[in-house]
Amino acid sequence: MLSKLRRWLREGAILLVVLAGVIILLDVWRSPQMPAMFDSTPLHTLDGETVTLASISEERPVLLYFWASWCGPCRELFPWLKEFYEKYHDKGVEILGVSVDKDVKAWEKALDAEKLPWLHVRDEKLPGGKHTASDLYDVTGIPHLVLIDREGKIVKCGYLEYELEELVNGLLMDKEIGK
Fold this sequence. Notes:
The chain has 6 helices and 7 strands; from the N terminus they run αββαβααβαβββα. The protein is α/β, with parallel strands linked by helices.
């Protein structure tokens, strides 16, 4: 009986080690990478102005916020994002709202109603069916946040509301000490 228990424990430990290895490999394989072409990809604002991520970042952290006018949870985050913007914009953090709206009028109406102070662009559909930004960042659901450091590397992506300030403070601290 005792030998069976030892064998089960040994096999269970081996299984846990193998599982941990697989999970680590999957995390490395799925870790987000900064798309090489996005920093020069033209994005269009509501006014028809063309901007690029490179022109927005200019050696400062950028928070991409993927949202849509019809998405209730996306719009529920706006008050929190406004507070975040007020707290961190003067410290050098930029927000870029990326709307996945297909209906330009709905996007325009939402921006007018929400009075959001940061820059907004629309995730336009490219020839072949892909989208300018969301396909490059593997955005499969919204709201979706992507935090990019001052060197253009993705720090974290997903739903970051509860850890965003800690991550941004770390980026700002790194800048102050010259990392």
